[in-house]
Write a structure and sequence with these properties.
The structure is a single chain. The protein is of the alpha+beta class. It contains four helices and seven strands. It has a single domain, classed as Gcn5-related N-acetyltransferase (GNAT) (Aminopeptidase, 3-Layer(aba) Sandwich), CATH 3.40.630.30. Helices cover 25% and strands 34% of the residues. It has a seven-stranded mixed β-sheet with strand order 1-2-3-4-5-7-6, with helices on both faces. The two termini are 26 Å apart.
């Protein structure tokens, strides 16, 4: 697997992969597909210490992408980041998720991150299982904070200290 920083030319693929998970109502609180135009500002807001990464096979097929986002926006939280990862449907359940998550954990100190967070819907058992395999623990539970298709959904906050 090859890992690189995303470029603006990757944005259509990033949006396509993201949009592919919306109908499952398990991974994101977005309920309508997004567009490249709607995601451009989000893309440009990333920095060298809060990057978007692209993961590819040796044949340059995009496996998926991941991003880091500042938590809460106050200076004292600057070392804490939310990590999000999305895989192309052709590469799910093949072990890439754990590889990517372990890479993010390993690289976090170089990104000035000491704490990683994942915000995961309670019904998203595969993602919860994945992050727990990587050493994340449940740090919070927000009951019924989202409504998807008229159904209340709870959110779990999972966290892990990284680095030394």
């Amino acid at each position: 697997m090859q890992i690189r920083n995303a470029s603006i030319g990757d944005l259509p693929t990033i949006v396509s992969i993201y949009n592919s998970i919306i109908p499952g109502r398990m991974v994101t609180a977005d309920i309508e597909p997004s567009s490249v135009a709607n995601k451009t500002e989000w893309f440009l807001s990333h920095t060298p210490t809060r990057p978007i990464w692209i993961f590819e096979t040796e044949n340059n097929e995009i496996i998926g992408w991941a991003s880091f986002k500042n938590f809460y926006g106050r200076p004292a939280y600057s070392g804490t980041a939310e990590f999000s990862m999305y895989l192309d449907e052709n590469f799910r359940s093949k072990g890439y998720g754990l590889q990517i998550l372990n890479y993010a954990i390993q690289q976090s100190p170089t990104l000035q991150i000491h704490t990683l967070l994942g915000f995961i819907f309670e019904q998203n058992t595969p993602s919860i299982t994945l992050v727990k395999k990587a050493g994340f623990e449940e740090w919070g539970h927000l009951p019924d904070v989202a409504v998807l298709d008229g159904k209340s959904c709870s959110l779990k906050i999972l966290g892990r200290k990284v680095g030394s």
